[in-house]
User: Fold these one by one.
Assistant:
Number 1:
Amino acid sequence: MTLTAFTRRSEAAASTGTAEPAGPDGHGANPPASPRRSTRDADGLAVASFVLGLIGLLVMNILLGPAAIVMALVALARSTARRGRALLGLALGIADLVVLAFLVTGNGVVAWNFGG
């Protein structure tokens, strides 16, 4: 519970003359609402996964591909509202690693360039 919410509850209880019963965790009767923050964080992870996967197709796919995959899986595990974007981030992260694999087998090194 934030300090502001605690202050408001204390003032409200003092003005009405009633005390709010404590729940099992020592807070008020109503526990703080954390699912909204969790889904908002998951939505941010889904968008970040998509962006990193997209950028990873062009540069630094050895780092951005796995990062996009991990972020997409975490967003899906937290049941994001942007499920499609998380799935696209997952697909783009896998595509980053596939592109890297083709380029490494073709060049023989973990570096590539656009020139001939």
Number 2:
Amino acid sequence: MRGRGDALAFLVAGTGGAASGTGTVRYRDGSLSRYRLTAPDWRSGPLATKAVALPHINTPGGQLAEKARLYVVTVPLVRGREVASVTLPPDPGAPDLHVFALSVRARTQGWTGSWSAASAGYTAVGPWSDRTVRLVVHTSAGGPRVRVRLANTFAAAPVRIGAATVAVQRAGATAAGVPRRLSFRGRAGTEIPAGARAVSDPLDFRVPADTNLLVSFHLPGPVVTAPVHSQALQRSYVSGPGDHAADASPAAYTSTITTWPLLTGVDVGGGPGSVVLLGDSITDGVKSTPDANRRWPDVLATRLLNQSRVPRYGVLNQGISANRVVADRYPGDGVSTDTGGVSALHRLDRDVLAQTSARTVVVFEGVNDVRWGASAREVIAGLREIAERSRARGLRVVAATIAPCEGESLCTAAANTRREAVNAYLRGGGDFDAVLDFDEVLRDPAHPARLLPSYDSGDHLHPGDAGLAALADSVDLRQLVP
């Protein structure tokens, strides 16, 4: 096992319970580091963090209709050193630790994340068969090359991509010029296994910054369920029968959707790397104007583009509406109508640590936890763990205080007390490299438990366009620099 990267990724499972052990990494310069590997149990471990669930378990008494769970667990490496060999943990006895595969998770070189969306659940779609999906996404950073990331997260079956293209949007489903064909390991399409992802080959295609793209892919077989990002706040398009990925014309695109299925990222060549925004519905842009790209991450991206004091990072929006720090809304397996995602703790590796060229993470979560009864101590422990795990992987970690929400039905006096306790912890700053006081930005000075009326979308929980712009404008861009 050799290579350079920021982490080792193990495919593991425990039997007889969660299993742990300590192993050693030897580097080419002769130095060593130790790591602790913990594998959840293959039958009782959390579904929310599994890599894949196998459909049944074989026993001496016969086959059981029970899912076997395999997990991808990552541990950090010493930055800048080349791995020469990895010694696995010794057999701990019962419970048993099983390692099925191991790889070095390489740091992304030569790419900047320009757009992203987090898989928030696994829901019924379409149904689609021999249809082309044309998704509208908005770039942050631009560059001379492009690749797209598709993910079959949470799925129980593979999905086939027949062909895929990228184009600059002219208007609606109309492309500005003939869409350019993407390839996957030299082929026009690919099959994405359950729980896996696919990254297209690099394509020489100049991606403008701060621009809408059309990412189109043909689904030749039946697709009745898919991982989705539910709150796209953007109209996208689905065609009638046939492969219309390369069509510049909108004529074949006869219906619209307001989710982003399967597509999780657009990367551009070069650039300084990315800032990842881990959040809930406020980061997701709920209550902002649809089709207008007025989410606070979009406004922040524009600010970065229009200055020269700090690097012009890509901005990756990993907000999920209804998401929480310490509790799963979506259980992590099966078809569900709930698209609140697994917890920030359970999605941290996928949605932050594995994002393209991530340099800094901004954590803006917790209001849903306190509204639904989580204690301040639980939320603080979760935020502290996010900071520790992110820093261990070399990221700068910035936290934002929880915004006020009095007047919304679940924002009771008790919830506000919990919110204020979390904010007091955050303002202490000890676990974070910087703190953004979004509470101070949004609150009504005359009534600090409420949003300023001019920033309130009307539901007393979500800022409208003006409030979201105020959040982005309040960020000292120097605080984003590692």
